[in-house]
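agent> Task received from the user: take the single chain below, predict its 3D structure, and emit structure tokens. No templates, no multimer pairing.
agent> Plan: (1) validate residues, (2) run structure prediction, (3) serialize to tokens, (4) report one or two observations.
agent> Step 1 OK, no nonstandard residues flagged.
tool_call: predict_structure(input=
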Amino acid sequence: MKITIDTKEFENMDTIFDHNMKMNSLFLSEEAEDFLLEILEWKEKVDGLYEKARERMKEEAEKRKGFKSIKSKNIKISYRFFGSKYKIDDSKIDQIPKEFYKKSVRYNPKAREIDDFVEEKGKLPFGVDETKRHKQLNFKKND
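)
tool_result: status=success, residues=143
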């Protein structure tokens, strides 16, 4: 498979989006929409190639007992497990020796209730801090 991307398209991108941003438009021009659709098509093709390469390398890795990784000048390929190796059956916790697990407690803030408190009192509740979050813009093709 050969993918050709004409990077001249990117030179136009600023004017496509500046026009829409200046108008505070909630809609894209047809030209901008076509451009974004083309980018999504490229992404789909590249993602497909990535997955095919990954599957092919996985097949080869599975043929080689003990294979863990390959490292070249610019790429590292790793084949390893992710996630916990074991899990605890909570229903049997009383019968499991304590040396095989640690108990942890996690407190999850209730955003709606905290928002209501802040709106009413004008400040965060004692012991609650606001986290730094970042907004991210995404785009995808409509289903």
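agent> Step 4: summary for the user.
Residues 70 and 77 are 5 Å apart (CA to CA).
agent> Done.
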